[in-house]
Amino acid sequence: GPNGGVEASPTEASQAEAPLNRKVNDLFARMTTEEKIGQLTQLSAQDATPELIRKGEVGSILSDTDPADIARLQHIAVTESPLHIPILFGLDIIHGYRTVFPIPLAMAGSFDPKLEQEEAAIAASEASAAGQRWRNCRRGNSPPGWRWCRPWSKARVFTRRGFVGVPRPTQ
């Protein structure tokens, strides 16, 4: 492959994915309309109650930063909800996680791509260490072609590199 690794052919990849695809299709076929809507429902940490999670009415929770609370709610989702689907926990990391950085326009105005990448790597490392695996961050989630100012758009690439390059902590 382009990175020196061995790539599977499309046929091999399809065969490897077949058991997972069957499992997903089976799960989806068993879901009620209410459960499907529940998987599309994102609540804030204050609004996500154990009762809603037990009923399968929560797909993701935004802004819960307490690792013990995340573990407790995740345990409820995978052991007590009807379909045992894990919850996706997310957090907006606009200016960093524990370490706070300047606003996006100021970071982009520095014209320092390495600084952008370092800032994102620090934020990703701190958030990952606290159990956050899904992050909404400035620039990193905006698709190409959006009408952002040029420094913002260009800096987004370096922010993404910073987030992607951070190894996940082992549990």
Structural commentary:
α6 packs across α7. The protein has helices at residues 10-30, 33-39, 50-54, 67-80, 104-109, 113-129, 150-164, and strands at 42-44, 60-62, 88-93, 134-137. The chain has a four-stranded parallel beta sheet, covered by helices on one side. By secondary structure, it is of the alpha/beta class. The longest helix has 21 residues, at 10-30.
Features:
single chain; 171 residues; four-stranded parallel beta sheet; 7 helices; 4 strands; 50% helix
Write the layout of secondary structure elements.
Elements: H1 10-30, H2 33-39, E1 42-44, H3 50-54, E2 60-62, H4 67-80, E3 88-93, H5 104-109, H6 113-129, E4 134-137, H7 150-164
Parallel strand pairs: 1-2, 2-3, 3-4
Q: Measure the end-to-end span.
A: 30 Å
Low-confidence stretches: 1-6, 139-155
Outline: globular
- The helix-and-strand class reads alpha/beta
Largest pleated sheet: 4 strands, parallel
